[in-house]
Design a protein that fits this description.
Number of strands: 4
Structural class: alpha+beta
Strand content: 15-25%
Distance between the termini: 99 Å
Shape: rod-shaped
Number of domains: 1
Number of helices: 3
Mean pLDDT: 82
């Protein structure tokens, strides 16, 4: 007697599970990359806004002699900023207040936990910025689980 073997065509369960595992890993890695890129983009946007505020404040201070002489605040800075916007990418208002002839504060509201270390590490390289009375800016002051209230002090001649 001759036996005829039929060839079996199709996919095994092991092959399907392997493909699903690879697809899941790719999805997880792409979501993490997107979140990291998004946080970096928000930190860069806030940094650009802060630099624009500092530039506008310096222009006003040159005309008036000091930050306190020009009564530095949101209403004096808004016309000098591109688009006149004083909000962060996540919707928090940015407030500016002159504290002395050579310093003013910038309050960026609550910075999300993913953006805070990036923003602080970028500001840490510039000794004009401090948080409260502790110069320079320290990324370890960020809360790892929640948004951190951020008030920066800018000093014109540290």
């Amino acid at each position: 007697m001759k036996r005829v073997f039929k060839t079996v065509l199709g996919v095994t369960l092991l092959e399907v599970m392997l493909v699903l595992a690879i697809a899941a890993m790719i999805i997880v890695m792409s979501v993490r990359y997107y979140q990291s890129a998004s946080a970096s983009q928000q930190a860069n946007a806030v940094l650009q806004q802060i630099q624009g505020i500092v530039s506008a404040a310096d222009n006003l201070a040159q005309a008036g002699g000091s930050y306190s002489a020009v009564k530095l605040n949101n209403s004096t800075l808004t016309p000098l900023l591109p688009g006149g916007a004083l909000t962060t990418p996540w919707g928090e208002p940015i407030t500016v207040t002159s504290t002395s002839a050579t310093t003013f504060t910038i309050n960026a509201g609550h910075v999300p936990s993913g953006v805070c270390p990036l923003l602080y590490s970028k500001l840490a390289t510039n000794n004009h910025y401090s948080i409260g009375n502790t110069p320079p800016v320290d990324p370890s002051t960020c809360s790892p689980t929640s948004a951190t209230s951020t008030t920066l002090t800018y000093t014109s001649n540290p």
